[in-house]
Design a protein that fits this description.
The chain is mainly β. It has one domain. The chain is built from no helices and seven strands. β1 and β2 form a beta hairpin.
Amino acid sequence: MGGYHYELRSEKRVPYGEGAVVIRYVTETMGLPFLDPGTSIVTLEDGFGGETTIYKARRIFQEAYPFVSDVKVEGEAFEWTDGDKQYHLRIHPLRGTTPPNENETAYPSD
């Protein structure tokens, strides 16, 4: 009964550029899964195999929030609510840039 448990309860995909915004409601817990109130996860899939988690929140026990709903996508922007807050996100792709090579660090050093 114990251990890690993951179950996809629902999934909604909204087209976004060459990929999609994916809204998932999951059970993700260590221990007994029937005690898990559920987790909302919003990810951005780029259409080339990349996936970025931009929001993840576990619902408060015996409460109706946070639970992602009212997702709207327009151009580079999208918004959603979670029953407690409203979120607005605008993404600007960095086209023409190259990733750091193996000799460069991803973060500046002090």
